[in-house]
Amino acid sequence: MGTILDSIIERKRVEVEELKKAGVDMPVSQSKQRSLIKALRESKHVAIISEFKRASPSKGDINLSLDPSEQAKLYARAGASAISVLTDEKGFKGSFTDLKKVREAVNLPILCKDFIVDQIQIEMARSAGADVILLIASALPEEKLAELYEYASEKGLECLVEIHDETDLEKALNIKAAIIGINNRDLKSFEVNLENTEKLGPLVKKEGALLVSESGMKTRDDIVRAAAAGADGVLIGETFMTSGDLIKTFQTFFVPIIRDHHEG
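Given the sequence above, the corresponding structure tokens read:
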């Protein structure tokens, strides 16, 4: 029996073929690239990548009424280091239009969060104004992961390579990923466990990559745990999308970064 991730990837492949047949016009975004690598390196605290996320397959609707531009401005004002925008329509009710609106509203690095299986999706992300794309190691054979990573890099985009286990980590290290994201949500069962960051984080840091912990951050203690495991940044969606007082939630989540002296 296939996993949730398998079914999403299968659907994406079909969507990609439809896109190619439709011949989408993709003008290159005129905005200058903003670096997530730089934002992570320069942050005085564990950098916060706040996510615009309307819904998810595991949670259903999270917040459909928020306006992407307004939420992005709030994120920027609250102190986000970068903004992640979900562009998958069927599972997350996102769109490239959401990404464009966020790009027009703020001057922060923007991550296009999607299930990328083909170069055309990278073109679309770039056209909408993304600076960074997500590549999910467990969703792609290593050769394909390497090919998409290289293609995005050639186009001036950075990549957040997402891992879930040691096999994924090996793939990410083999392609020399500069930023590695550890997803605490198992994309096969959709269960969340911060122990995943605690287990894999030190291995990522030993190799010198920047580390982002993703999913399941609900309290300051969660960020503290991620920081102790070596996280340079955390990616938070649902907690911010449902917060009644975003500025206050952010302030609670600013945790000093733990950097080894041998790192730059």
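The longest helix spans residues 4-22. Try to locate this feature in the token string yourself.
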